[in-house]
Specification:
The chain is α/β, with parallel strands linked by helices and 216 residues long. The protein has six helices and nine strands; from the N terminus they run βββαβαβαβαββαβα. The protein has one domain (2-215): Spore Coat Polysaccharide Biosynthesis Protein SpsA, Chain A (Alpha-Beta Complex). A seven-stranded mixed β-sheet has the order 5-4-1-6-8-7-9, sandwiched between helices. It has a two-stranded antiparallel sheet with strand order 2-3.
Length: 216
């Protein structure tokens, strides 16, 4: 069974609005609904689950209508992820999991299908971005950007790996860093328009990107 787990517990501390960023509107639709719809339209997703604050269900037509299964969020992102993983362990026989961010609305069904397909060969699939600027640090060491990359959601994993190795108290926010180094990984650098809503101005950028790629 392939499960898409959408993390929607964030409160948007850097976002200039009273409403959590994932429930703000782009073209009249909540950000999170773009992500939910991508999962629903994915041919290889058998179940979509959202980890969220129950008081925010009213801001999404899918959550308010009860069309999508939900799990109560935790205090921090890793706590929410842990709640989702534990819920899946208890209720489903999950083979693969794709973890998505409710504030990253440019994900699309074919991408999710591609990640699940790649898990037939790889233990995990990670969305990555190359670093285009120079790296600085407070010790003023010289760092080569070619040795580093940024990671983003979505991330897909063999669920047995997550069950075995995931800990919410791990020091790194990159989930793949918890896996054994021997894990066969696919690093996807091709999803280069993957914008996560962090600041209120990102809504304008996301709208332009959605309109552009939607027409394509």
């Amino acid at each position: 069974m392939n499960i898409a787990l959408i993390l929607s517990g964030g409160v948007g501390k850097r976002f200039a609005a009273n409403l959590p960023k994932q429930y703000n509107l782009i073209n009249g639709k909540p950000v999170i609904d773009y992500v939910i719809e991508a999962c629903i339209k994915s041919k290889l997703t058998d179940k979509t689950i959202v980890v969220c604050d129950p008081s925010c269900k009213q801001f999404s037509k899918y959550l308010e209508g009860g069309e999508i299964e939900t799990v109560i969020n935790g205090k921090e992102r890793y706590d929410s992820l842990n709640n989702g993983v534990e819920y899946i362990k208890e209720h489903y026989n999950c083979k693969n999991i794709c973890i998505l961010d409710a504030a990253a609305p440019l994900v699309y069904p074919d991408l999710i299908d591609d990640y699940f397909s790649k898990l037939e060969e790889y233990g995990c699939v990670i969305t990555c971005q190359k670093i285009t600027g120079e790296l600085g640090n407070f010790e003023y060491d010289i760092l080569s950007r070619d040795k580093f990359y940024m990671t983003q959601s979505p991330e897909a994993f063999n669920f047995e790996l997550i069950k075995t190795h995931f800990s919410p108290s791990f020091y790194s926010s990159e989930l793949a860093n918890q896996l054994p180094k021997s894990t066969k990984r696919y690093l996807n650098f091709d999803f280069n328009f993957n914008l996560k809503i962090t600041y209120d101005t990102d809504l304008v950028c996301a709208e332009a990107l959605l309109n552009h790629f939607g027409n394509k």
